[in-house]
Design a protein that fits this description.
It is a single chain. The protein contains 5 helices and 18 strands. With 322 residues, it is an alpha+beta fold. Strands 5-3-18-16-13-12 form a 6-stranded mixed beta sheet. A hairpin with a 6-residue loop joins strand 1 and strand 2.
Length: 322
């Protein structure tokens, strides 16, 4: 069986780790010898680390590791574990006074399912790095997608299970664009090819029947029960074997958000922290950046659908597959 995930791009490794008996986890993306990167953040409640480093006007060109983690703001400590793993391998930015690994990442809010007070941190991220490989990415309720949920228009008690998905899109002359997405969305999930709703808010706690979101929104002046912000987020990364610079990769990350808009409604709300990284992991020259971005839209959308379709339910939170 072939690899149709982001790790089919040469030099890209992905690793997962999860907390034993706890519905939360961490995922890392480790590009060989680092990768030029960009980022675009669209959600109104972001939780990111190292994003400013990727601004095209700033000094550092390459990132050595990307982490995606559960645990809300507590999960940002995953950066320390990734940095320690890379430092042990002498990977990073040469400051002239030692090598400093450049790490960036983002978190999802999964505290609604993880009420233990134990969160992903440096040790779990270090384990995820040790687990990293170029094998096909494990999807569904894996890594940072372990505690992800979707469809919270009427609150957490009527949501469904989200997860982590990855995909690969082939362009001409050997061009590859891959995506890895952690889907913890406020909105519902729609297959743009069929227009069918895949997952979303349920009519009640016991039901598997989904709410008609657009008519419901048109009757609202606010979200029921004063829905709290910051409990959602779709985060992920695009990787390509095209040789692109930071400005171009920022554009790719920007365009990739259209993959969210095609598959999630509503998206980029005040309650989501949507963030997409983009990595150049190859040496294929002369590729038009808008082409890479257009393929990134497809890859991101496919990864989102796979994340939800491959997830396993938690107690009281059904999954599409169950």
């Amino acid at each position: 069986m072939g690899n149709d995930t982001i790790t089919a791009i040469e030099g890209v490794r992905v690793g997962h780790a999860r907390l034993e008996g706890i519905p939360s986890g961490c995922t890392v993306i480790l590009p060989e010898n680092g990768a030029v990167a960009g980022v675009d953040i669209r959600g109104g409640a972001p939780g990111t680390f190292g994003a400013d480093t990727l601004n095209p006007v700033n000094l550092v060109e390459k990132v050595n590791g990307i982490f995606l983690s559960g645990g809300s703001a507590f999960g940002l400590s995953a950066a320390d574990g990734v940095r320690r793993y890379l430092k042990d391998r002498n990977e990073g930015f040469d400051t002239g006074h030692g090598v400093v690994p450049i790490v960036a990442g983002a978190i999802i809010f999964d505290l609604g399912v993880n009420t233990t007070g134990v969160y992903p941190g440096a040790e779990l991220a270090f384990e995820a790095c040790r687990n990293a490989s170029s094998d096909p990415v494990e999807e569904g309720s894996a890594g940072a997608g372990t505690g992800a949920t979707v469809g919270k228009l009427f609150g957490f008690e009527r949501c469904m299970k989200g997860g982590l998905g990855s995909s690969l899109v082939h362009g001409g002359a050997g061009l590859k664009v891959g995506a890895l997405m952690v889907v913890n969305a406020f909105g519902e999930i729609i297959d743009p090819d069929t227009g069918m709703k895949i997952a979303g808010a349920r009519k009640n706690r016991e039901s598997r029947e989904l709410v008609e979101t657009i008519p419901a929104l048109m009757k609202m002046t606010g979200f029921l029960g004063g829905f709290p912000g910051g409990e959602n987020t779709v985060i992920g990364a695009i990787a390509t074997n095209a040789l692109l610079n930071k400005v171009q990769l920022t554009k790719v990350a920007q365009m990739a958000h259209d993959g969210l808009a095609r598959t999630i409604y509503p998206t980029h709300t005040q309650y989501d922290g949507d963030a997409v990284f983009a990595l150049s992991c190859g040496a294929m020259e002369g590729v038009e950046v808008s082409l890479v971005g257009a393929l990134a839209v497809i890859a991101a959308g496919q990864a989102i659908l796979r994340a939800v379709r491959k997830a396993h339910g938690l107690e009281g939170i059904p999954a599409v597959s169950q």
